[in-house]
Amino acid sequence: MAMTSLGGYPVHTAGDLPAVGSTAPDFTLTGPNLKDDVTRPEGRRVVLNIFPSVETGVCSASVRRFNQLAAGLENTTVICVSQDLPFALGNFCAAEGIDDVVAASSFRSSFGEDYGVMLLDGAFRGLLARSVIVLDGDGRVIHQELVPSMDDEPDYDAAVAALG
Fold first, then answer.
1. 93 classed as catalytic
2. Which chemical reaction does it catalyze (predicted)?
3. Measured distance CA(68)–CA(62) in Å, rounded
């Protein structure tokens, strides 16, 4: 179990992020089309931008920023993951003109438990903790960050630097 904070209060997660050097768990997430077809693309690097809800300012800022960054990343797919319903994710991306990232919902999967990011207590209990996990083309973790305070954005520079 790991810990982050929200509004200055400690919040516990369901586990720890996958360790650097380990193979990340497989996942299947739901896209805005309501199909359970978002998986790790074979042979591509992946940035998992994980957050509580696209309806909050910090979360929506992270989706916007990773969308900007994704345009310049070779052989890399950025997947933005939350417990939001696929409708909300699709509507947000359409309204914002976001098309360089993949929006995906974990609402029908065990992603939160498998990746150790499900929040166990606090106001956001049941949502996902703000974190970033970067995978190489073979699905090995090359960077991970559980953001110490969910009131803050992730370290974008560190995530991009991990891609080399």
1. no
2. a hydroperoxide + [thioredoxin]-dithiol = an alcohol + [thioredoxin]-disulfide + H2O
3. 10
